Amino acid sequence: xxxxxxxxxxxxxxxxxxxxxxxxxxxxxxxxxxxxxxxxxxxxxxxxxxxxxxxxxxxxxxxxxxxxxxxxxxxxxxxxxxxxxxxxxxxxxxxxxxxxxxxxxxxxxxxxxxxxxxxxxxxxxxxxxxxxxxxxxxxxxxxxxxxxxxxxxxxxxxxxxxxxxxxxxxxxxxxxxxxxxxxxxxxxxxxxxxxxxxxxxxxxxxxxxxxxxxxxxxxxxxxxxxxxxxxxxxxxxxxxxxxxxxxxxxxxxxxxxxxxxxxxxxxxxxxx
Amino acid sequence: xxxxxxxxxxxxxxxxxxxxxxxxxxxxxxxxxxxxxxxxxxxxxxxxxxxxxxxxxxxxxxxxxxxxxxxxxxxxxxxxxxxxxxxxxxxxxxxxxxxxxxxxxxxxxxxxxxxxxxxxxxxxxxxxxxxxxxxxxxxxxxxxxxxxxxxxxxxxxxxxxxxxxxxxxxxxxxxxxxxxxxxxxxxxxxxxxxxxxxxxxxxxxxxxxx
Lengths: 272, 210
Description:
The complex is a heterodimer.
Chain A: H1 18-24, H2 33-60, H3 69-75, H4 93-109, H5 112-115, H6 121-126, H7 134-140, H8 147-150, E1 162-166, E2 170-171, H9 176-185, E3 192-193, H10 207-216, E4 224-232, E5 235-244, E6 247-253, E7 264-270
Chain B: H1 3-6, H2 11-20, H3 25-46, H4 49-65, H5 76-102, H6 120-123, H7 126-132, H8 135-146, H9 151-158, H10 162-180, H11 184-194
């Protein structure tokens, strides 16, 4: 097929009808909430990084403000006035800890909805993730890191409750009893509740998925279960701390754990 | 300035505030304003949700970091489109390399151009056809025909002359039309389905048969 055309014809010239066809196609859906959250979180990390450097410069320059923002941050002394390596003020370590946690989650897991709650509120507000977007609405279902999440930890035996968290603890099968007990006792910080499934985490990151896994492991339906999405022996896994009539026990399983395929790594380990 | 106030500012001023170092608030507003449009462009350019998501994230991060490179010679949206398109192309090229290395065409394994076994209904849809166009033609059609971008702006986004954009549109449309048109085999299949009574002098013989 060949149609007559030349570059002098208006672009609207459409003898094939393809322009009209393409224009008539429905608009793609808006950016998905999880992607909004993911990018917002990544931008917040960028902003946090920029702010931190700017503040450090201010310390070096006796409070005189340098060009800040992302360009200045990337240029880092490119103007030749300060080639010193940035020194992190002690009071900023907490903020940088947030940054490190957030960056790790963005880069490795891509769970924006989780990490946005681990960044300072003013930074997150800049990207609207605690405001009006539907992503933030989803995020608001996620318990904040810290003391608020503690109340969700350690569901009681007989409650049938499932709480899914991401503690950031690197479990090992050898020391599972120790870390699982600490996790269950709420001595680890921060802990965030993950109430929404993420494709990168697997079905076990949802209460329903975790319950399916527990059923496959033979755990009673009325057991209270704390699920920690993390690593065991350096690989992606989940740790289940189970409260049932028999007491408290821990299981380490692959994140694909579900009916018919538990992917058991270790367990049950009595926690006493 | 409160976030509500930022919503009234033009894009260029938001970008200026961002470059001046406002802690990300102005860029956050830019992201809110343009994320859906940029995602749509990425989705249509890559024809792959995962690639589009990664590309649009790359793009916004790049724009955040490189905002000082914006000279104000074009609209902020033009500049953003260009960054998104480049991020998409980068992702697509990387994907093709990894697919080639894996020896598996995976999601990018599109039907053979001359596949005459499947019916026209299932062989191609517009999206697939679009994905098979040469990169330049596909981008021109996505921007001009699907997103209604003026040729002059598309030329800025793509970094080519306006005539080139128009030429790519024309050629891309022709190629699309060719891919979406029923083949002779489709006609033959329809004729067979209709039965000999409906098609006097049956056409079941191969084309070119004596």
